[in-house]
């Protein structure tokens, strides 16, 4: 009898050893939540996000990030509104456009990633003592009308006493992805460019960086993580975990050098030399482009609407609390 019980115990133990890994895997899958993120473009400007991904901060929170690049604000917002994505990384102006169209399920900004414009003014000719007046009478190759880069560009020009529509020839009908090629092929005396293209053009002698729109425009919610109100309500705990991962990455970026950051995010820019990634990261870090916490504050929101208004692109004034959720970020930062 004792021998029989012993054999049964051995069989049970062996069975448990076989099924235990399966049970653990099943539990793990149940605990891990997938979040589909659509980023407006792939840019070193978003370094803290890639740090969060590469350093495993989302995994630590039990989240699996399904990332896709949607190449353009309109396409990114379409993906979010059509439930092709759960979270979007794009400019806050898009939430105002959607709200003004009478959206029943508005898109809410809940975690800020960048807090300045990310473009630079590049001149075709080398200018030793640049003045913004040098743009008067020139041909300026700008960005798409209604997008944040173009609105900030016009805001900065007006700040320096330049009417972008009368004091210069303004070109803004070229597709975003084709702007660098247009300048390289000879179009325009000046161009507004994101990194790393601005630094690449300088290295190749195609143009010369003469000013930073980010330094000139002040703090603005330039790139923010956002989601539909319904998704935030139904997935509040997951969004807290998401924001916690972002905040952890923001603090890591703040306390590490451009060289260290570049090494971490390099896998997301396989076609870019590590030295160039470091140069670009240093440019953005030095001008304070990377937000050091996920809170989008009211002053930044008002600056955004002022920039949009001056460009004639603000459909209506929207109260800060209507489209900005700081509750999640504040709770994460307290912990």
From TrEMBL:
Source domain of life is: Bacteria
Alphabetized, the UniProt keywords read: Signal
Coiled-coil residue spans: none
Which Gene3D superfamilies does the annotation name?
Periplasmic binding protein-like II (3.40.190.10)
Q: What is its main location?
A: periplasm
One Pfam match: NMT1_2
Q: Which GO terms describe its cellular component?
A: periplasmic space
Where is it located?
Answer: Periplasm
Family under the similarity heading: Belongs to the bacterial solute-binding protein SsuA/TauA family.
For this protein, the record's PANTHER family field holds: ALIPHATIC SULFONATES-BINDING PROTEIN-RELATED, TAURINE-BINDING PERIPLASMIC PROTEIN
- What is this protein called in UniProt? SsuA/THI5-like domain-containing protein
Q: Which organism is it from?
A: Lottiidibacillus patelloidae
């Amino acid at each position: 009898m004792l021998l029989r019980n012993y054999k049964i115990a051995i069989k049970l133990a062996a069975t448990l050893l076989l099924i235990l890994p399966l049970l653990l895997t099943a539990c793990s899958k149940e605990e891990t939540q997938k979040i589909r993120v659509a980023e407006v473009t792939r840019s070193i400007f978003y370094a803290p996000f890639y740090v969060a991904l590469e350093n495993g901060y989302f995994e630590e929170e039990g989240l699996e990030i399904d990332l896709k690049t949607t190449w353009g604000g309109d396409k990114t917002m379409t993906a979010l509104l059509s439930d092709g994505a759960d979270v979007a990384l794009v400019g806050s102006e898009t939430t105002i456009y959607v709200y003004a169209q009478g959206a029943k399920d508005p898109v809410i900004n809940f975690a800020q990633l960048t807090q300045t414009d990310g473009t630079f003014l590049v001149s075709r000719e080398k200018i030793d003592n640049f003045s913004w007046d040098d743009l008067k009478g020139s041909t300026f190759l700008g960005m798409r009308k209604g997008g944040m880069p173009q609105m900030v560009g016009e805001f900065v020009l007006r700040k320096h006493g330049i009417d972008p529509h009368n004091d210069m020839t303004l070109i803004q009908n070229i597709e975003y992805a084709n702007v660098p090629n247009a300048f390289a092929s000879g179009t325009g005396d000046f161009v507004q460019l994101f990194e790393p293209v601005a630094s690449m053009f300088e290295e190749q002698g195609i143009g010369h960086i003469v000013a930073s729109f980010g330094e000139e425009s002040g703090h603005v919610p330039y790139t923010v993580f956002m989601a539909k109100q319904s998704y935030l309500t139904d997935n509040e705990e997951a969004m807290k975990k998401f924001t916690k991962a972002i905040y952890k990455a923001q603090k890591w970026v703040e306390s590490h050098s451009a060289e260290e950051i570049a090494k971490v995010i390099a896998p997301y820019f396989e076609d870019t030399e590590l030295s160039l990634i470091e140069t670009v990261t240093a440019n953005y870090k030095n001008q304070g482009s990377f937000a050091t916490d996920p809170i989008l504050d009211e002053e930044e929101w008002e600056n955004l609407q002022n920039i949009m208004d001056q460009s004639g692109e603000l459909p209506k004034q929207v109260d800060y609390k209507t489209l900005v959720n700081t509750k999640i970020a504040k709770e994460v930062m307290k912990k």
